[in-house]
Write a structure and sequence with these properties.
The complex is a heterodimer. By secondary structure, chain A is mostly beta strands. Helix content of chain A is 0%, strand content 52%. In chain A, strand 8 and strand 9 form a beta hairpin. The radius of gyration of chain A is 13 Å and the shape is globular. Chain B starts with a strand and ends with a strand. Classes of the chains: A mainly beta, B mainly beta. At the A-B interface, strand 6, strand 10 and strand 11 of A face strand 4, strand 5 and strand 10 of B.
Chain lengths: 111, 115
């Protein structure tokens, strides 16, 4: 069973528009959740993480995510998209000693 | 501040050949992880070391795969008798345990193409 689900494998927005990338998780215990970004032919860069301290988490490059236990969600948002935000985004859950990743969402930003 | 490094960045090999990849973690990190990422998918966990001890292996890690971390610093991942299905990006990550759940920091990956 998939424990991290990202709805929408591709998302396209116009430059300056709101970015919303969806992530839902399943977990029997309070999870630690992460968002990573991957640019072409590169490794993963941490955007932000949720570690149960605060439900609204701010990350780098203007991104933030809100942990909603009732909805088992951890959606990633950014108020205004830049061309440089075009990349693949991965939501992940810390499951013991490993990360379990969603399938990824490719964000495209139109000029 | 040196991040996680991986070598080589790209490898093309013929089916049946052996390949070896190297990962150098962030120097103070005692945990090291290997993941595999196929095209259009998220990374999948392969194995994990704490210092030199390999503590966990995924069922994805067939007997053709072996990973080592002999001195608790760098790690190698070897694939014997490569198959076309082994073509993927192999990612290494490292972390250091702390009071908070540790964050894994990833290297740039080694992209393997098996012809």
């Amino acid at each position: 069973a998939q424990s991290v689900t990202q709805l929408g494998s591709h998302v396209s927005v116009s430059e300056g528009a709101l970015v919303l990338l969806r992530c839902n998780y399943s977990s029997s215990v309070p999870p630690y959740l992460f968002w990573y970004v991957q640019y072409p032919n590169q490794g993963l860069q941490l955007l932000l993480k949720y570690t149960s301290a605060a439900t609204l988490v701010k990350g780098i490059n203007g991104f933030e995510a809100e942990f909603k236990k009732s909805e088992t969600s951890f959606h990633l948002t950014k108020p205004s998209a830049h061309m440089s935000d075009a990349a693949e985004y991965f939501c992940a859950k810390n499951a013991g000693n490993m990360l379990t990743f969603g399938g990824g969402t490719r964000l495209m930003v139109k000029p | 501040d040196t991040g996680v490094s991986q070598d080589p960045r790209h490898k093309i090999t013929k089916r049946g050949q052996n390949v070896t990849f190297r990962c150098d973690p962030i120097s103070e990190h005692n945990r090291l992880y290997w993941y595999r990422q196929t095209l259009g998918q998220g990374p999948e966990f392969l194995t994990y070391f704490q210092n030199e001890a390999q503590l966990e292996k995924s069922r994805l890690l067939s007997d053709r795969f072996s990973a080592e971390r002999p001195k608790g610093s760098f790690s190698t991942l070897e694939i014997q008798r490569t198959e076309q299905g082994d073509s993927a990006m192999y990612l290494c990550a490292s972390s250091s345990p702390s009071r908070l759940k540790e964050t894994q920091y990833f290297g740039p990956g080694t992209r393997l193409l098996v012809l």
